[in-house]
Amino acid sequence: MKFYEDFEKIRLKPNHEVSQWYMEMHDLKKQVNYIYKFANVEKILFLGDGDGISILLALFAYKKSNNIKEIYVFDIDERELNLYRKLANEYKIENKIKFMTISYNVIDKTPIQFKNYFDYFYINPPYCYETTPAGLGFFFCLKDVRS
Ligand SMILES: C[S@@+](CC[C@H](N)C(=O)[O-])C[C@H]1O[C@@H](n2cnc3c(N)ncnc32)[C@H](O)[C@@H]1O
């Protein structure tokens, strides 16, 4: 589909400092198809999404018949969130799906208004990569080990 080609052209450079190591496009397509099969629900949360699976799912689901009404992305990377927002506006997906981007650090508490809100979640948070400088994911895991 055309939006995959468009997305590949404007994909940002992965920022290893926040544990971004992008998937190949062919894997990305497979993953979107896979999630679409299982996420035929109203409200979906993406917690960590450097690959853009949230916006690709929205673009994929937009023209199809399904139950998806809201997709939220929580991530620390403003560049990614801005890109997804821009695409959501360009493709006018808001006509069918509410697409929201939330700047969020996993170390912080989840905003209370989202408690019990979602029907399905996709989680791809920072992992324990040792980068130079060490990424947030790395610090997060160190903290876990020590406490
Ligand atoms: C492991 S990646 C997701 C997988 C994807 N293959 C990639 O390379 O982006 C981790 C995701 O979590 C986000 N992230 C990193 N540190 C974070 C933090 N402290 N709070 C919230 N999101 C964070 C990154 O921006 C990225 O989108």
Tag the structure with descriptive keywords:
alpha/beta; binds S-adenosylmethionine; single chain; 4 strands; four-stranded parallel beta sheet
Mind explaining what this structure looks like?
α3 runs parallel beside α4 (78-90). This protein has one domain (2-146): Vaccinia Virus protein VP39 (Rossmann fold, 3-Layer(aba) Sandwich), CATH 3.40.50. A 4-stranded parallel beta sheet has the order 3-2-1-4, covered by helices on one side. It has 5 helices and 4 strands; from the N terminus they run ααβαβαββα. The protein has 147 residues and is an alpha/beta fold. It has helices at residues 2-10, 25-38, 53-62, 78-90, 136-146, and strands spanning 43-47, 70-75, 98-103, 120-123. It is 39% helix and 14% strand. The N and C termini lie far apart (47 Å). β1, α3 and β2 (70-75) form a beta-alpha-beta unit. The structure holds S-adenosylmethionine. S-adenosylmethionine binds at residues 14, 18-23, 48-51, 75-77, 80, 104-107, 124-127, 136-137.
Q: How would the blueprint of this fold be written?
A:
Blueprint: H1 2-10, H2 25-38, E1 43-47, H3 53-62, E2 70-75, H4 78-90, E3 98-103, E4 120-123, H5 136-146
Parallel strand pairs: 1-2, 1-4, 2-3
Helix pairs in contact: 2-3, 3-4
Bound molecules: S-adenosylmethionine (SAM).
The site of S-adenosylmethionine (SAM) has 25 residues, from helix 5.
